[in-house]
Amino acid sequence: MANISDSKGLNGLISQYGTEAAKTKAGIEKPEVPKDEAALADQNVFLKLYIEQLKGQDPTAPQDTNDMVAQMSQFSSLERLTSISDQLENMATSLTSNQALSASTLVGKSILMDGNKAKVTDGLEPVQIRTVIPEDSQVASLRIFDADNRLVRTATLNSGEYKWDKLDDDGNVLPPGEYRFAASSANDKGEISALNTQLPTRIQGVTINGENGTVLNVENHGKIKLTNELEILG
């Protein structure tokens, strides 16, 4: 007969009765159960294995009390771990759903990206342009060209932020289309240097939980990872 004291607690139970063949022979085969009942089924299997071992123990060598406590402690730990696993899975599912819902609201918005071209749409909302003016700059300016490379607007930059009202130099409203922006700065020696610009670029789509996490599909820039450093425009 099996001696419970030599079975090393739960490990002995599993090695003696844990195979599919052994469980079938003992009449304790784990039934197919829905996912939400899996934890309860695991506990029932554990109890059945434990009872089967008690049936097979040597009457002259009853189970050691310490083994009994150790096995019940393992059972309690199994129960708690199963519950924690279910809770974490539910939390992960909820977080993924919330992330997908939040990210979907970004489609159609714009993000400031390095570049010198931007598509201008109808509406009164100005186009935001950003650059960094050097400390030794005496004068900085911005020139705007249309799709035919014609200069349509020249503006003086008093700071690194400029909002274009979509008007030309004569105050006429310009049509929608792609425009090119060129910023430059001149120092006290008259030396002129080109400045990098950041322009609004449309977010065309979002990928959730890809191999790179959540990424934005940005027009003319491809996939950009979503981080706190990105500035999303309305």
UniProtKB/TrEMBL annotation:
The UniProt record lists the keyword Plastid: no
Domain of life, source organism: Bacteria
Keywords: Bacterial flagellum biogenesis, Cell projection, Cilium, Flagellum
Cited InterPro entries: FlgD, FlgD/Vpr_Ig-like, FLgD_Tudor
Residue ranges of every copy of the FlgD Tudor-like domain listed in the record: 98-228
Biological processes, Gene Ontology terms: bacterial-type flagellum organization
Transport recorded as keyword: no
Gene3D superfamilies: 2.30.30.910, 2.60.40.4070
Annotated ranges, domain FlgD/Vpr Ig-like: 115-188
Family of the protein in this entry: Belongs to the FlgD family.
Function in brief: Required for flagellar hook formation. May act as a scaffolding protein.
Protein name: Basal-body rod modification protein FlgD
Organism for this UniProt entry: Marinomonas rhizomae
